[in-house]
Amino acid sequence: MKVRVSWFLVPIFLFVLVGQASAAVYWTNPTTIGRVNLDGTHLEPEFIARNGTREIVSACGVAVDRSHIYWADAANNTIGRANLDGTAPNYAFITGANDPCGVAVNDSHIFWANREIDTIGRANLDGTEQNQSFLAGDACGIAVNDSHLFWGSLINDSIVRASLDGTVVETDFIDELGEIGPCGVAVNGAQVFWGSYSSTIGRANLDGSNPSVLVTDLERPCAVAADDSHFYWIEQSASGVGRANLNGTAVNRGFVSGSLGRNCGVAVDSLSFSPPPPPPPVQSTCKLYGVNHIRRNGSAFIRVYGPAHGSFVVGTKGLSWRVITKEPPARVGGLRQWVLKIWPGGKGRAGNRIRERLNRSGRASVKLRVRCHGLDESPTTLVKRISLRRAQRSK
After folding, report:
1. pLDDT in tens, 311-320
2. What CA–CA distance (Å, rounded) separates 264 from 151?
3. Is the pLDDT of residue 273 over 50?
């Protein structure tokens, strides 16, 4: 019987071949792949490591089939592959990925999660017919079995399921997860498992029914793998591999212990894996500076100090606006100074009130709201009370 498992991510999948003599658990360190027998013997922390000038820079998910081990390297934008015994490593087996973090494999294809562009890539087992955008999805861990792909979606807080040809996608296949931030997915012959960006591991039937929480009080279990008797996980904050029975009993957080480094990928036997959840979004660093008035028409220029390639939206009713700086030079830390032009606009009541005040007294006080957003950053809303001014006409 074939069993496949996966993890988070960003989730990733594992493939397990039950009864294989060389049964083992595999995990990712930032620069190596580790391995240990299922009974805990023969620990190899650097099962796959540097080979001459070639090396893994940031491993983020691992998967295994009957003949090979695969891993995603987020820093090199590659999928690597080696023989199941660790020989003949190819650190750039698949190239052109976009911050890959999560790998899964079945009998015909390799799948990986592209965090940078929110897609799932696919290629044949020999690396041909690569498609970096096989499916759209903010995959946080990916897994595969004979009929479906599964992944965790941080945006939807759900486990997503798709047909293997990508034609049918169920975005809310499992949406009662117990905690937010699904991070790591795995499947075996009967169940789906998922980790979380917080502290739990959950489980449901393969049809999505009977979701439940199996293990609690973990430290960001971002990768999950499963076979026919146990499930395994990586605790990103605790740097170790844990194991428990399929029903959640006999929890062993130190099945593999030691300083594994910041990692998120685990696989068991012959196909499994998990990638790390993306870090919490960084708050955009933005500031509003002084106002330069154009008294002729009541407009003004506002300077915004913010991220390179940032975007801005003025959310004050009654104002029209536009960014007039096309590409300002970068400053310290990659930040730039942008210039927004604002003026009384629109035909609504808010715009009319501003114009009336300008005409009556030459001054209109408004609460300027600017929403600042940088790449891979959560938006910041800046609020500044300013006065638009207009020279009054002499009577």
Report:
1. 778 888 888 8
2. 15
3. no
